[in-house]
Amino acid sequence: MCGIVAYIGPKDASPFLLEGLQRLEYRGYDSAGLAVVAPATRTAPARLKVCKVKGRVADLAAAVPARFKGGTGIGHTRWATHGVPSDANAHPHTDNEDRIAVVHNGIVENADELRAKLTADGAVFRSETDTEVLAHLIAAHRTDDGELEDAVRAALKLVVGTYGIAVLDAEQPDRIVVARNGSPIVLGIGEKEMFAASDVSALVRYTRQVVHLEDGELATVRADGFRTFTEDARTVTRQPSTVDWEIGSYDTGGYAHYLLKEIHEQPGAVERTLSGRLDERFATAHLGGLNLDARELREIRRVKILGCGSAYYAGEMGAQLIEELARIPAHSEPASEFRYRNPVIEADTLYVAVSQSGETYDTLAAVQEVKRKGGRVLGVVNTVGSAIARECDGGIYLHAGPEISVASTKAFTSTVVAFALLALHFGRIHDLSPADGRRIVSALKALPDQIREILEQDAEIARLAAAYADSQGMMFIGRVRGYPVAREGAQKLKEISYVHAEAYPASELKHGPLALISPELPTVAMVPDDELLDKNLTALGEIKAREGRVLAVAHRPVGPRLADHCLVVPKSEPELDPLLLNIPLQLFAYHAAVALGRDVDKPRNLAKSVTVE
Ligand code: G6P
Fold it and tell me: What pTM, to 2 d.p., does this model score?
């Protein structure tokens, strides 16, 4: 979703801005733009230059005129919320005198009201966006002898909504003012130059020293440093932190796509999620960030997991793990639904928010709703210091490394591993025996190699995916532990290949979806070698009897009578099998999308982190 970059220093801003925007492309967008302050000449004062287009960053780069010079600049990738994707609606937006330029992530909720007032005062709007309101509003508060930051503070006091913004002023080219409220802004500290962005991935090529703004904070960024302050002009001191993710994590590293790279990074990601957290002596897990001691954990009677998209499905696997290992009722629900239904918050329920980015607005709002009602929330989050991580009372960081591709793979797997650790810890506080604890500890340790084994089947999976890719649609089935696997498998296929995919519990087949089965609608079936094996095989028989094609993902080969094709995956302990059964489905979706010529890393209409309602 929308991205912001900003540069101030001795060099020309636009090459950095364009590169930074390219790094943010993965978040999903439909238009892009830049503004720089062109320095004063002997005959003309400093002035703003703006270039913006509907389309990709490459289209913007082609449109930027050769004479687009200036060492102070801002850039943006827009994901339309107010108004269609168009050149006019792309950011930056300016006031009528082209003195102020603004890029904005988030939503101004009282934009209509502000727009009416500004129009009555003479502002002429040139776009349908809520952001343009900010440009006019800041300009209206800008006095000739005043400071840009004072005008920005005064304007933001009138704004209801969420924002991350970066503001330029043609008459004060020695600074960029940024502000954050609900949409991230991070400053990057360079040598006699400074950067800002909505996401560290835009900055890591230039600096590892960063400062995350808090909600309600602003900063004046100059080439030689920065000052952070509150909306009431109170200075706050922020110490820089060092980004520890490898720069290489932000490249495709020789893979055709980020998605393929991230699928192949899973053994390492799982190792990092587990690192230092397994306790062989007591057959349990150490989770230092929970901020809950054993006594407090014992008082928990229920676990409610909240997340969106793949995070919600990972939560379903997590709920299953917690129920099985700790025997505590656990349930996963879309955070996007939960926040709107006036949820009952119980004192003895532990709420767990799941988010790769830590920015998903629906999940953040759900966390805030739980906290407002006095509930306790843990975060299972990949991005350190993100909004959701900060809002939670404690949690588990995944340490999966940056995930760039829109569709989640390694963060999904690491989330399930994090839940396995939580369930183990919980279980060992309750009635999980030391022997069962040891069984889970050694199964967790074996996962990275087992994932490697599955990844070796890449070529075989690619062949199968190509054979199934032109289907009208696909059915994914699984039973109990296998059902969340089917749901995530269907999600992955539909989001990146656009092939319609539907997940059903195998037990429900004959209660409706069996009517759909035909040679045109193949089924991908989870067939783990567990206590439900016979029941799953019966379901396959029912499908084959109706001429349905079947691709089985199983622990033991399923013969041609029941399945047309079979992918055999290594067996873990039954509680952890879902995690491994999911891996071939990621490769299946990837290769189906490639076979259909899709934009794998940036599927249409989707964004990596959905930072609006
Ligand atoms: C978006 C993405 C999904 C992702 C979901 C949750 O909808 O398209 O792929 O699963 O957000 O993202 P999060 O960062 O909160 O895990």
Answer: 0.82
